[in-house]
Amino acid sequence: MKHLIWFSRLLFGSWMVANGMNHFVYLWPQPLGGIPVSKDFTIALIDSHLFDLVKAIEVLAGVSALTGIYAPLMMVVGLPVSFVVFYYGAVINHSKGGHGYVVLGTNLLICLSYWKNYQAMFTMRAKPRELAPAMSPAPAE
User: How high does pLDDT run on average in the chain?
Assistant: First the structure.
């Protein structure tokens, strides 16, 4: 299982970094999709500058997966992007390649490997921690 997680982190991280960086540093042409609705979707993301945020999240999540720095947090932050990659490929663009399945699947697998980090968030009736008492002035003599 350890090797599967390691391979998933490598695959997910390298894909996310490469595709995210492609937006900021030209590496290859940005694919717009094979059908009109997928082209319109991609162009709308680019024109609205939401694509900048998506690609920044891809880079951060990818670097995090590769280095392990803030990995549990960044895998959750990257989940919406992974889902959109999956949805775009499988539903909008009718892609047979399946890269969306791989991106979403590896992201979910990595999240699952960090389950212990997330367990406290699933407490039914969690109570907030007590705040440290404010410093009180010295008693008057």
Answer: 91
